[in-house]
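Exam revision sheet. Question 4 asks you to relate a sequence to its structure. Input first:
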Amino acid sequence: MNKKGFTLLEILLSLTLITFVVLITISLINPGQQVADVNNVQRQADILNIYTAINQYREANNGILPAGINTTAINICQAGCTESSSQIDISLELNPYLRLNTLPIDPLQTGSILTGYTVYVDSQSGRVVVSAPLAENNIIINTIE
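Answer key, structure tokens:
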């Protein structure tokens, strides 16, 4: 009698080969790296949005920056936060100039009143610098780099 079909050994070898190919593919794709890269692209867009809004505010107000922006890096907090020596709320000043009329929030900044971005004026050039200190993969994201 001639039976057609697969033996248990053939099925196990096929499954092992498929598993091996899937594991290699996943390791090459590296989903964690992909998510971090997407977050960093979002951060770059966010700091450019904030930087542009600050400069538009400055232009509309005869060169004056929003209160609290000086040569010391300070955290930008979300609308309505209590300002302190470590954080400023510039949402009222910047909302008219921001893309969505609200300050962007870093993808990793959750459960906080902070946006995950900082701002200061470079003392040598007088240029406003917006930074993303939560950038992933050892990348520096700011408006100077």
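Marking note for examiners. The chain has a mean pLDDT of 92.
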